[in-house]
Amino acid sequence: MKKILTIALCLMLALSLAACGGNTVVEEATDATEATATYKTVTDGVLTVATSPDYAPYEFYAIDENGNANLAGFDIELAKYIANELGLEVEFVPMDFDGVLMEVGLGTVDMGVAGLSPDPEREKTMDFSVTYYEGGQAFITTKANADKFTDLASANQAGLQIGAQIGTIQEDLAKQFSADADLVSLPKATDIIAELIGGKLDGAYIEWDVAESYQKNYPDLVLVCEVPYEAEGNVIGVPKGNEELLAAINAALTKCVEEGTFADFVAQAQTLAEGEIVEGLLE
Ligand code: ARG
To answer: What are the chain's domains?
Structure first.
């Protein structure tokens, strides 16, 4: 019943927005007192979202029964949910992860949703939403190399080829915990999986849940151990200074998590990621 009411409210909001011609100034009736929230988006009436769909179950391309690749993952569903709550259309702009950081920093998109960790360094160039997911960090290898690694200390040996995605906190983790090894930085998380499976890398740093997800499609992957990282959890990156938009995103995000919808998104994404998916970004 509550759901039906929410849908009806969303519909009413969408209709009233359509009647206004989709202005960027969104009037949101939260209760009978008609509180108004105003925020600007890059394009009127649209929430432009940068994402890096090389990261199942966060964001990836799932192939449907007709062979078409569609953006999927719990970050994608979360962004759609937020746009809907804000009465905006959603437009995804897929790119490599370092591109997401750059575009959010430049303010050419309204938000970056890409399994982003709240690294304090990044706060110089963007604002963070509240945390919406708790994911740990992993050091991974393949079955063929598993006997080289017993713990995190064994990941720090000269001559090892250790992978991490460009611009990620995993690059920092590699520098910290595998300082004596050779760091191989690659643009996509899926490049890392491919190079590991192909035997070009000995090990890599990646988000724990991403490793688990790819392990289902590549049973050769081995999760060696967890890697400690202080700024835990995942947040949405929002261009600096757009406080009204950040507040609206936080309100929608909190609602999504608290009502349990986000947990459903996670479960759906995990199942979808076990099916046929595209390895990397579409060209
Ligand atoms: N959590 C890590 C970071 O923020 C990696 C995120 C990579 N995301 C992706 N979609 N490839 O640095």
So the answer is: 3-134+232-278 (3.40.190.10), 137-227 (3.40.190.10)
